[in-house]
Amino acid sequence: MTNAELKVRRVGRQGLEAAEIGFGAMGITLAYGEADPSGGTAAIRRAHELGVTMFDTAEMYGWGENERVLGAAVAPFRDEVTIATSARSSRTPSASSAPTTSTCCTSTARTPPCPSRKSPAR
Questions:
Q1: Hey, where are the domains in the chain?
Q2: Which residue(s) pair with 56 in the sheet?
Q3: Residue 79 and residue 111 in contact, taking contact as beta carbons nearer than 8 Å
Q4: Per the confidence metrics, is the pTM higher than 0.90?
């Protein structure tokens, strides 16, 4: 299978497009036994080779470790993929739950940091 074989779909109203099959990365550092960063990196890179362009993670998966693994794994092809992440998941009930651009960008180790973006008008 190659990238050309996966159908691409439009996501939302902002013009974002992604392959119709995505990669849910939770299991790299959480839920299915011991964390396996090297196996997760290999799986992420193989998924991209097969045409996956949307990767899903969250700050609470390994308390940031999952996002660091994903960020490092996609670094060679970062501009070819979209990363969905739940920003500002908190270990403490009193912490703010408001998502922030800086959390999304620093957690996936993107260099240089992402520019801040305004929320789309509804």
A1: 3-107
A2: 24, 84
A3: no
A4: no
CATH number, domain 3-107: 3.20.20.100
CA distance 22 to 84: 10
Residues annotated as part of the active site: 61
Tell me the per-residue pLDDT of 18-63, one tens digit each, with 9 for 90 and over: 999 999 988 888 888 888 899 999 999 999 999 999 999 888 887 8
Instruction: Give pLDDT tens digits for 65-111.
Output: 888 999 999 999 999 999 988 765 455 555 554 444 445 555 555 44
Torsion of CA 2, 82, 68, 114, to 10 degrees: 140
Q: How far apart are CA 112 and CA 119, in angstroms?
A: 21
Please give the Cα distance from 122 to 113 (Å, whole number).
26
For every residue of 19-50, DSSP letters joined together read: ESS-EE-GGGTSSSSS--HHHHHHHHHHHHHT
